[in-house]
Amino acid sequence: MDSLKQTVSDACRILAAHGVVEGILGHVSVRVDDSHLLVRTRGPRERGLRQTEVADIRLVDLDGEGDELGEWRVPNELPIHTEVLRARPSVGAVVHAHPPAMLLCGLAGLPLRPVYGAFDIPGMRLAAGGVPVYPRSVLIRRRDLAQEMLAAMGERPVCLLRGHGVTVTGATVEEAVVRTIALETLARVTVELHRLGTKVPDVSNADLAELPDLGAGFNTDAQWRALVAEVSGG
Fold first, then answer.
1. pTM for the complete prediction?
2. Which string of b and e fits 149-160 if b means at least 16 CB within 10 Å?
């Protein structure tokens, strides 16, 4: 349990360091069992996600209750996490963030397309599979709203929330964080291409066939170790 709490804490600091979350907005969770999750909460000395500590990661049930809470409060948008975990047993972790470039893409109606290949193969494959959009700019603080988001998300691991942010899932915290950063990188490229007025085609089928799956050991594990090293100074 302590190692999982450390992983969620690292995830929050990594997302902040990469500009995917700012201030106190955004949260990360990980499934513990069928009825419990660890989630980034807000404590009595909240200093923002960049300063997340292990003490900010608390165990709660799917209704947001738990003996560990004390003075810490669960996020207002906890239903994003709990409804995803209820509905999709294969999901082990959820990131909800407010990335600025993804916000711009949603507001401007710019689709996240696979415009590059070898630069970031996992990010390209996420785009090639489609990034669905939840069209409402609401605070998702009720189960019914989270279920609406899930309906828009379908079977995809990500969902852009127009005028709001993004929900990203993964089998692990590490996978969800790497996916979130990859999507924001693609969104930044998409916004810049639009600003330049450059029309770029999707990666061709021939090039797609040449792009290998480098495996989780490279795509997730190695990237995660590098990301942790960045925020830990090691």
1. 0.94
2. bbebbeeebbbb
**What is the C-alpha to C-alpha distance for residues 63 and 90, in angstroms, rounded to an integer?**
20
Amino acid (one-letter) located at 180: T
Secondary structure letter of residue 130 according to DSSP: -
Which residue among 77, 174, 175, 184 is the active-site one? 77
Q: Cβ(39)–Cβ(27) under 8 Å?
A: yes
- Is 77 a catalytic site residue? yes
How many Å is the Cα radius of gyration of the chain? 17
Note the pLDDT of residue 175. 97
Among candidates 135, 125, 119, 134, which has minimal Cα distance to 189? 119
Q: Which of 60-69, 166-175, 225-234 has the lowest average pLDDT? A: 225-234
Helices (H), 89-200: 100-108, 121-129, 143-153, 173-196
CB 50 within 8 A of CB 231: no
On the question of pLDDT at 234 being above 80, the answer is: no
Say what angle helices 173-196 and 121-129 make with each other, to 10 degrees. Answer: 80
Please give the C-alpha separations between residue 17 and each of 30, 33, 86, 167, in angstroms, as whole numbers.
Answer: 20, 29, 30, 18
Residues 92, 70: Cα–Cα separation, whole Å = 25
For the segment 112-145, what is each residue's pLDDT rounded down to a tens digit?
999 999 999 999 999 999 999 999 999 999 999 9
